[in-house]
Design a protein that fits this description.
This protein is of the alpha/beta class. It has one domain: Aldolase class I (TIM Barrel, Alpha-Beta Barrel), CATH 3.20.20. Helix content is about 45%, strand content about 15%. It has an eight-stranded parallel barrel with strand order 1-2-3-4-5-6-7-8, surrounded by seven helices. Helix 3 links the parallel strand 2 and strand 3. Helix 4 packs parallel to helix 6 and helix 6 crosses helix 7. The N and C termini lie close together (about 10 Å).
Amino acid sequence: MNLSREKLAKMIDHTQIRPNAERKQIIKLCDEAKKYGFCSVAIPPMYVPLAVECLNGSSVKVGSITGFPFGYNRTEVKIVETALAVSEGAEEIDMVMNVSAMKSKDYALVRRDIEGVVRAARGAIVKVIIEACFLTDEEKIEACKIIADAGANFVKTSTGFAEGGARVEDVRLLRQHTPKTMGVKASGGIRDFKTTLAMIEAGATRIGTSTGPSIIEGCTT
């Protein structure tokens, strides 16, 4: 695959969502995102205003999270969290699907949950994390259908906080069962260029990682 550094950078969400993330680390993340030309930063909700300030005048989008890390928050809570982030300048929202409801086959609740966040996002990009390590292939396929029907923009493999991260086979499966108009985001344990390239070749259109700079440095084209 002929992939330039510039094109690769535009596929990366530079991420810092550790529970012990400090203000100075968010500032560093934003500075790196501007330097390398990443698509976005993904940060905790409390740091959205800081990131907006740091990235003012750049092409890097501010992304935040909702329902992290388990996804079984009440829909009303996810809606408020999303609305607040967007009102403060977030342009992308990574939400965790209600995995518990999915495993219980309460598909109506899963859909309402996603639809609520999509409405609250008011046009901001919504990426739905299915936490693939907890799902069977059949459940992953059903999740893709629900996410597409609910109007989200991306399906995403993982939070990075569960027992498994992104797998090539999951990315390939998600790509096969989502409309071409939807994106597929691979996230969780992606730390080098070789792994990143494998995810893209499998169909990922966005990569979530905390090691964006080293990935770019590993790209020789």
